Amino acid sequence: MAFTLAIIGRPNVGKSTLFNRLVGRRVALVDDQPGVTRDRREGQGHLFDLEFTVIDTAGLDDVNDDSLEARMRRQTELAVRDADAVIMMIDARAGVTPLDQYFGDWLRRGEVPVLLAANKAEGIAGEAGRLDAYSLGLGEPIALSAEHGLGLDELYEFLNPLFPEAEEPEEEEEEFGLEEDRGPLQLAVVGRPNVGKSTLINKLLGEERLLTGPEAGITRDSISVDWDFKGRPIRLVDTAGLRRRSRVEDKVERLSIADTKRSIDYAQVVVLVLDAGLGLEKQDLTIARQVEEEGRALVIAVNKWDACEDRQGTMRAIRDRLQRSFPQTRGIPVVPISAREGRGLPRLLDAVMAAYEVWNKRLSTGLLNRWLEDVASAHPPPAPGGRRIRMKYITQARTRPPTFAISCSNPTDLPDSYLRYLENALREDFDMPGTPIRMHLKKPKNPYVS
Q: By CB count within 10 A, which of 71, 153, 156, 421 is most buried?
């Protein structure tokens, strides 16, 4: 039975630092600037022999309107509702504030077990604040230092009795021949700020899981959410909007951009979301090139299609610019959608699954060599200095993305234009649109040279 622990508190008390420590790696963005965390982030936490889901939340503010802060608070309230236990953190060095008092009263009225943690309590500077925390009426506060790992023993003593009794696992008959579980498909949603990335994921999930609104740049952390599509587990990753580097001045935004780039690195398929009203701009092409350079499968979603007046012209312009500016990866799927209304999402997901299959495609060596003989006969390689380059052998070295090794005489003399010819023929003949293809040339060894 899964156990869920939510970490809450006002801004800048160290919630994300504790989250990172329990998860065991630096996942959540951490900075001295308050309000860095906005969405609730989930991770797999470990504390000695306990394993649980831990939720990092935005800093609590006493607001109930339609502002961004109020929407952040509602996300935290949902996290508390779904939790089996809550850690309320205060800043021991700052002492108990009126905001701490307000939310302490709110937690006391609930039924979820609460541990009060006075963070930043290392040394004697935080002792007065820890003692002051008794006034919140949430029991004995523990002295915690999330940064230095102090107080985790007390946290374990609080959590351990709350865990359900472990059941004896039933013995299962061993089965053979089953397909190896490849794990969830890692699907990252990227794009410029305010193009509708979070709205798209919320619509797929069927709930307001991620913060959305008219403000640009709401998402800062890359937030992953597990989901299921037609029986296929998918890990959706919402990312911060990527602007041109020259426009980025804020330190937190730089951290967010680095986090987004890591999400692309670990993704298997990337959905690049465009605004139909703006089309395919230079920054979108920069993002697409990053995805291609990392060897990830790419699908383009043209969002806000419901508000697009010249649909044929918009789609033609996007495809033409892709052809001119991004010829190295032909056949990238372009799907018009409306994330707000849910239109086009089945087509988008079908394109994602198709791109994933192409990305994993493996071709037999015999088939590849018959193909190489045909294409080299139809369009022979050049003959620099009067000696024609001979294409001897091809094999697929790996998948994800498809990578091929070609043995040929004088590989350094083979021009890039001929490699592009081979790549385009490979895409067309074996139905591999959109995905990056890697080709490596090597010269065969002379068996008579020791």
A: 71
> DSSP secondary-structure letter at 215?
S
Percent of the chain whose predicted confidence (pLDDT) is above 70: 82
Burial class (CB in 10 A: 0-12, 13-18, 19+), 181: exposed
Contact present, 328 and 307 (Cβ < 8 Å): no
Contact at 8 Å (CB) between 208 and 202?
yes
The answer on whether 193 is annotated among ligand-binding residues is yes
Question: Is the pTM here over 0.85, yes or no?
Answer: no
The answer to whether 14 is annotated as binding is yes
Q: Quote the tokens at residue 259.
A: 């986090």
* Residue 415, annotated as binding a ligand: no
Domains along the chain? 4-162 (3.40.50.300), 185-359 (3.40.50.300), 365-442 (3.30.300.20)
CA-to-CA distance for 18 and 57, rounded, in angstroms? 11
143 is in an annotated binding site: no
Q: What is the CA radius of gyration of the chain?
A: 27
CA-CA distances (angstroms) from residue 3 to 52, 75, 83?
Answer: 5, 19, 8
pLDDT tens per residue across span 160-182: 999 876 554 454 444 433 334 46
Residues 235/186, Cβ–Cβ less than 8 Å: yes
For residues 262 and 266, give the distance between their C-alpha atoms in angstroms, rounded to a whole number: 6
Contact, 76 vs 112, CB < 8 A?
no
Residue 155's pLDDT is 93
How high does pLDDT run on average in the chain? Answer: 83
* Residue 410 marked in a binding site: no
